Amino acid sequence: MISVASLKVGGPSGAGSAQRQIESYWSAGVEAGAVVQITDSEIDDWSEIYRHRCLAQWEAEVVPSPDSPIRARFAVTSQTADGQTARVEQAILSRLGRGISTRGW
User: Fold this and answer.
1) N or C: which end of the chain has fewer CB atoms below 10 A?
2) What are the DSSP E strand ranges found in the chain?
3) Are 72 and 92 a contacting pair, CB within 8 Å?
4) Is the pLDDT of residue 95 over 80?
């Protein structure tokens, strides 16, 4: 099985369209995609901001993540530019632990 993934570090202003980015990596044989969005800030309603900015054009299924550091998890199915079906799991995390820096990433 081939998978594609993207790790994004930053807040809402840089969230963009992770789904479209993953779709651009999709090719024959790819079966799964993942996006992990991390911020080192505490952002109120981060999951709703992300859903609005990145997932508004798709039916984003909310995936429960009880007892997890994941703030929100979504499953999105879309069509790539060449007609392939892309199912992408997206996880939102915040507040990196002490000693973890995003500098240099």
Assistant:
1) N
2) 2-9, 30-39, 61-62, 70-79, 85-94
3) yes
4) no
